[in-house]
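stage 2 :: seqdesign
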């Protein structure tokens, strides 16, 4: 009960944090570019100015090469004025040209009546030169940079003469300088362009993805239903199909490899480069050779495992047959895993929205940026917090106090930006400002806790259904009543048990996450011994997490049997596991392996069918296949989604096997303690556990 109350308190705190994030955050920051003052171009008062223009790209070259020890975590800051504009300039000009007044780009306080361009440029109010640009994700990027190479930039003035374009330093501009200045921004924006293509492919093919997932659900449902009456044949069929599909995948991959190798004059290794086009990798012989080798290795390992476990398969099949009867009787339990799955999606979606708002929460932060720093520079305050209203360039360096990002920092003076804010909310913002790492850590902790809680709820409800099926030999009530009663008992009596078990998992996950974060931060600053120790710690925590998940699952089964709390149930489950290690390994894990083969069989079948469809290899399907940039996006989503859907259906079987297994072991323990105890297990299970019949 105390843990249940603690769980509710943490949920309330998470809701409060969410409200703060929704008030302070603005996801538009991730979509719209910002100018030098932190205004969002294309939003609010600048809704009619969707693009941002950089006054002097050559300053970005020097800023890009600033030493990392002075950059303080920001890889690129261009210390040039950036303003929101209605449209990107379509003509190249210079402030000394006659055409400049019609193309000039200035700060917002410059009016059309101000015509002294020389003074405006000297004061930094207007750009000294204008470059014909094209919009790239809200940024005006100079056109035809690569074609200019090392040539000097020139443009035609209104008088018809071709004139050289000078930079802000008075030196002629050339294509190389501009290319270096734009390089980082273009690289980042190209990644966004690829992301846009991926989203476009998803928008084009989402109907086919849903169709594939629907087909996977139908196949999984039919598979489970058939196992009710034909458990052994279906399992053997699944094994055979899995082996056959692996063999087919290996054969097709080797066949593609041979054909491509012949086209490339029997060369396996051709010129390799990293590109975004998946068709390029598909045309390489080495790609299909790697796929063929991987499929062949998996095939060989699977066959060897089956040969080793062949004698134990009969026992596992008997357990699966008993589980099939339990699932068949409690037919509605087949649909239960979709409810926790939907809840997990809801938790993940809510956390993602809160994280986005939380990541974009904050006030404008301005930092010092210089364009002429070197490794031996004596300037140590690069990147420090500054106030654009009060900052003066007293060092004589070409530095500016420019907008850096929206966020919180202990050095930021909040009094000037929190006028009119309520006292309690202002205190909360001040706390976050001093401990900006805490909200993100708490948000991640709540994600781990809530997802572990939902998973535990799903396991406990199913355990209650099959525990009642085992111990209630009369099978009282209609089948759906067991699911409803198990859900009621879980919500009414065992919320604290679920909260406690999920809390342990969440704590271990948070520790792992923090360790991984610190490892990424210090990976270039630590020696081999420290890296080895860090990897050992991560490995130990991963093993601990896996063991705790396994223990939790069995503890929830004990809770479903006896109705005890988490610690008592975990102690009983641990005692059963320790006293029956061979039985657990042979029976339970072999059943898990057979169930896994069933899931992989369905996933591989749907994946191969999807591959044939999207690559136009199914006769008559060409007119239905959509035009895509990367066909692997819908294919990957279908494969992953199929595995998730199949896992939802087969998780019912897995939980039925584990519950019946532990119930049988507890039944045998009661028989050992009291010879007059009447075993509840069926004759089929008695043969599995080699119990002599006393009839």
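stage 2 :: out
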């Amino acid at each position: 009960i105390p843990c249940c109350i603690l769980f509710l308190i943490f949920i309330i705190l998470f809701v409060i944090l969410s409200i703060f994030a929704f008030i302070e955050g603005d996801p538009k920051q991730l979509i719209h570019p910002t100018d030098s003052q932190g205004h969002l171009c294309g939003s609010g008062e600048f809704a009619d100015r969707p693009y941002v223009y950089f006054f002097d790209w050559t300053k970005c070259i020097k800023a890009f090469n600033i030493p990392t020890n002075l950059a303080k975590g920001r890889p690129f800051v261009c210390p040039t004025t950036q303003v929101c504009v209605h449209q990107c300039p379509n003509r190249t000009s210079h402030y000394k040209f006659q055409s400049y007044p019609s193309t000039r780009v200035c700060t917002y306080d410059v009016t059309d009546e101000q015509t002294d361009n020389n003074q405006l440029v000297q004061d930094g109010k207007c750009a000294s030169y204008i470059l014909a640009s094209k919009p790239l994700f809200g940024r005006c990027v100079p056109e035809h940079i690569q074609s200019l190479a090392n040539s000097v930039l020139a443009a035609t003035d209104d008088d018809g003469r071709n004139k050289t374009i000078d930079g802000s330093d008075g030196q002629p501009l050339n294509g190389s300088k501009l290319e270096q200045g734009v390089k980082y921004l273009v690289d980042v924006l190209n990644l966004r362009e690829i992301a846009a293509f991926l989203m476009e492919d998803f928008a084009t093919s989402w109907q086919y993805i849903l169709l594939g997932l629907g087909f996977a659900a139908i196949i999984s449902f039919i598979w489970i239903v058939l196992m009710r009456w034909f458990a052994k044949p279906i399992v053997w069929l699944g094994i055979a199909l899995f082996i056959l599909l692996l063999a087919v995948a290996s054969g097709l991959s080797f066949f593609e490899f041979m054909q491509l190798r012949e086209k490339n004059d029997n060369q396996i290794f051709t010129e390799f480069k990293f590109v975004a086009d998946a068709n390029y990798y598909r045309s390489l012989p080495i790609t299909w050779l790697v796929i063929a080798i991987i499929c062949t290795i998996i095939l060989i390992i699977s066959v060897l495992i089956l040969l080793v476990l062949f004698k134990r398969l009969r026992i596992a099949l008997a357990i699966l047959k008993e589980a099939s009867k339990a699932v068949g009787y409690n037919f509605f339990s087949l649909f239960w895993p979709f409810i926790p799955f939907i809840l997990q999606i809801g938790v993940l979606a809510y956390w993602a929205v809160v994280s986005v708002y939380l990541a974009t929460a904050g006030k404008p932060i301005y930092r010092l940026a210089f364009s002429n720093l070197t490794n031996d520079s004596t300037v140590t305050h690069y990147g420090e917090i500054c106030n654009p209203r009060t900052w003066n360039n007293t060092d004589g360096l070409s530095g500016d106090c420019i907008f850096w990002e929206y966020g919180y920092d202990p050095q930021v003076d909040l009094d000037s930006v929190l006028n009119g804010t309520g006292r309690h909310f202002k205190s909360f913002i001040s706390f976050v400002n001093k401990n900006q790492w805490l909200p993100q850590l708490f948000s991640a902790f709540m994600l781990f806790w809530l997802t572990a809680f939902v998973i535990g709820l799903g396991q406990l409800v199913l355990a209650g259904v099959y525990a009642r099926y085992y111990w209630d030999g009369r099978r009282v009530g209609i089948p759906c009543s067991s699911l409803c009663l198990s859900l009621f008992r879980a919500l009414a009596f065992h919320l604290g048990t679920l909260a406690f078990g999920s809390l342990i998992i969440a704590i271990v996950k948070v520790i792992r996450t923090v360790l991984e974060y610190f490892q990424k931060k210090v990976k270039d600053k630590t020696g081999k011994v420290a890296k080895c120790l860090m990897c050992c710690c991560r490995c130990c925590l991963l093993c601990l997490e896996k063991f705790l998940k396994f223990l939790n699952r069995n503890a929830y089964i004990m809770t479903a049997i006896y109705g005890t709390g988490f610690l008592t149930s975990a102690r009983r489950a641990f005692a059963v596991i320790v006293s029956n290690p061979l039985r657990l390994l042979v029976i339970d894990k072999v059943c898990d392996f057979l169930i896994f083969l069933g899931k992989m069989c369905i996933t591989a079948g749907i994946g191969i069918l999807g591959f044939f469809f999207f690559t136009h290899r199914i006769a008559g399907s060409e007119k239905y296949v959509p035009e895509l940039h990367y066909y692997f996006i819908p294919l990957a989503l279908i494969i992953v989604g199929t595995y998730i859907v199949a896992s939802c259906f087969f998780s019912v079987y897995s939980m039925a096997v584990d519950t019946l297994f532990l119930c049988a072991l507890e039944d045998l323990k009661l028989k050992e303690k009291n010879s007059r105890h009447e075993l509840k297990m069926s004759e089929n299970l008695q043969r599995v556990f080699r119990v002599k019949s006393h009839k």
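stage 3 :: structure notes
- The two ends are 46 Å apart (CA to CA).
- The longest strand covers residues 399-407.
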